[in-house]
Amino acid sequence: MNLSEYASLDATALSEAVARGETTTEELQSLAATAAAAVDPELNAIIELWPDPEPPLGSAPFAGVPMLLKDMGAPIPGRRIELGSRLTAGLVADHRADLADRFRSAGLVAIGRTTIPEFAAAVVTESSATGATRNPYASGRSAGGSSGGSAAAVAAGVVPIAHATDAAGSIRVPAAFTGLVGLKPTRGAVSWSPDPEPVEGLAVPFALTRSVRDARALFDAMTDAPGVPERPGPLRVLVTDGALGARSASPSALRALADVSEALRDAGHSVNVKDIDLGVPWDRYAQALSAVWASSTAEWIDALAAVLGRDPREHLEPQTLALLLYGRGLTVEEMTAARDTLGQVGTSIGRIHEQVDLILSPTTLAPAPLIGEFAAGAADEDGEAWLRRSLEAAPLAAPVNATGTPAVSVPAGLDPETGIPVGVQLWGPAASDRMLLDVAAEIEERLPWGSRRPAIWAGDR
Fold first, then answer.
1. What per-residue confidence (pLDDT) applies to 320?
2. How far apart are CA 387 and CA 379, in angstroms?
3. What is the top-level taxon of the source organism (predicted)?
4. Is 146 a catalytic residue?
5. Which has fewest Cβ within 10 Å: 9, 56, 69, 387?
6. Are 164 and 138 in contact (CB under 8 A)?
7. Annotated catalytic, 8?
């Protein structure tokens, strides 16, 4: 198998090639390393490749296919896991994540780790520890965050699947910015064991893929959650433009929404446009989510700083230090109010799902920002203002983290001015992950993206 063929195929096709004897797992790992060497100097998506990757524990559905792990959330004893920060530089995992072994049981081979923003607290992947991760479609723009390194590597053809996590859109935002499929599963469907659920359960782990079928096969392989019965016949789809907070959707986001709405109508579904009600004002919702995020992150940072004997003030970026101070200062009363607000959001969205089967929205309000654009001026802001930057970039990403319900971002064309991918998001009620993926497959069939190639692509090297 040559590099161009390798970079063109999804994980399912690569596994089928192994089964037919057309390639070997060893050759696939060698091709992944060659692909990384060809494109990562431009992308800065990969922190390191491991010369001694662990062999898979199983063969189905992805026999020997290489993947990458995000620099958080899937510790392997003896491997560094540095969380995108100088504070935790050199940190070596002392325990194994169940998630790492679930990837191995699915046949995947983790060959290295990918970049993240410091402590995963941004919608772009730009950190003082590892630098800026660039978008394969336009190197002057971001690949998103916090799973930006994983997204850039998959989009550029280094690997067909990479680990990702999502506490407020960190799987779906980089998927939208780089033309990938990003499933945020139902809370609890994919285990964090033996670690507790981060960010008070807002965060979930999974992966980024190029195709819907890879996402579906991986979800089936990695979860113990049974699928809910599929709804027969046409689905009821509510379409909203995501106009929450201070910003509105860009023309390319609205165009993508219209194109996907038409594809869903073509598939026989009932599609109606309507604003959604979070049950609380936007400012109150954003404040509540920021409080929970900041409090959890502050506890995380303080615990690591104590173990490592390092002063956060000497090692953290200004934005993260502001977030730490904000989180430390929150009172019991403020946290109780924040959790109550998020509960009200969950109740309101639950009522919407009693009336419709799916919600369709932009994943982000605009295409990927220029490198450095998102963080401009942030060093002078407090922690809450920093978090709200990310929330306002993708205001309809985080509600499903509050509710624990699933959502999936799929590619929906390119922005005509920049050539950057644009994504739309489908979200449904709890345990509807497989139904979402079925609908995503209908979109993929009608608006195919599999042959789309970014400017920085391993298959051209």
1. 96
2. 12
3. Bacteria
4. yes
5. 56
6. no
7. no
